[in-house]
Amino acid sequence: MFFNEVKSQSLIKKEIVVKYFDAWAKIMNKRSDRLGYIDLFSGPGNYEDGTDSTPIAIMKLILKNNDYRNKFVTVFNDKNKRYIGKLESAISNLENIKSLKYEPIFLNLELDIQTSDIFAATSIIPSLIFIDPWGYKGVTQKLISSLTKDWGCDAILFFNYNRIRSGIKNPKVEEHMISLFGEKRYLKLREELNKSNCLDKESLIMNEFREAMSDIGIEYILTFRFKNEDKEDTSHYIVFLSKNFTAHNIMKEVMASLSSDKIHGVAKFEYIPDKERQLSLKDLYENPLDELRNELLTQYAGKTITFERLFYEHSKNKPFIKKNYKEVLTRLEEEGKILCNPDKSRRKKNTFSDKVVIKFL
Q: Sorted alphabetically, which InterPro entries does this protein's record hold (predicted)?
């Protein structure tokens, strides 16, 4: 069983969620009187060796902070009655649990295609929603849309790539695939995957899923890939879904910091358990910072823009973090391709605060 043994992928997944929650809560604490954490596939709370899973780690963070104890509404659900019972028991035994203003809510629901109606009809307080299913049943466009419709609501989704890839070709689960991708995208995806010349099926599936999320108004989408421990193929993805640029930027920094590899300082946004893995020829000979450099020179030729605005416009759903932009802009300044603060206002050399004005020559 999944919770019998804690694997390195599970620990990285937990760290992504917990690190983002910590940063998100600090910001939202200043902006809302009530906050939420919703876990729709929560599990029992602990692995067999006693390691905390995500729900317990999140609750411990909440319990350490007086503001959080008075603001957070937490909801935990699992269709496995034994799991949700074990989680309730584990949370009830946490230190300071009685200090919470709002008692945790525990549900024993099996999510299906109609579940989203519950959330669609309810206004949700600013919340982080974790959707971590075994497969894909109950995970729909409609559910994700209903969970992220309100201000301050972000979702982190476990995208079971292996199961979904198989499901696309399986007519018995067509209803589930349509509910996840939308009918037109699903039919297009199935047709493309059946073509013998479709070499990069993974990119095709993930691109169509990103577009399916865009169809429901999700503007910022980040994916973090996990490879199997004993193989080179992909196991699953963690997908971050938000309508807010600041949230997107925070999660990008979190994912970049936990990525197994960085090529010339640019994170690959993936985790590979094997520490003796080898970089591909593409990784060895291609510099993603050159790609960023060329894009900036082309897109902003002859324009004047602040660093803040450039980063906001250009970094959407791309692998580059602020550090990468600053490195490339420093190179461009040294090459005489840009002028910074052309009005000669004071600025420390090779620094790029948000207000630095950049003129592309």
A: GMT_wHTH, Tcm_partner
Query: How far is the C-alpha of 356 from the C-alpha of 148, rounded, in Å?
Result: 34
Joined together, the tokens standing for residue 191 give 């047709």
Residue with tokens 């999944």: 2
Residue 303 included in any domain: yes
Residues 6+ apart with CB under 8 A from 55: 39, 42, 43, 45, 76, 87, 91
Q: Residue 61 belongs to what domain range? A: 2-271
Instruction: Report d(CA 9, CA 12) in Å as an integer.
Output: 5
Could you count the other beta carbons within 10 Å of the beta carbon of residue 268? 18
**Segment 21-48, tens digit of pLDDT:** 999 999 999 999 999 999 999 999 888 7
Is-above-0.85 flag for pTM?
yes
3-state SS, residue 219: coil
pLDDT in tens, 200-236: 899 999 999 999 999 999 999 999 999 887 667 899 9
**52 and 85 share a domain?**
yes
Crossing angle for the helix pair 174-181 and 201-215, nearest 10 degrees? 60
Q: Are residues 21 and 65 in the same domain?
A: yes
CATH of the domain at 86: 3.40.50.150
**Is residue 234 in some structural domain?**
yes
CB atoms within 10 A of CB 140: 24
Between helix 307-314 and helix 322-334 the angle, nearest 10°, is 120
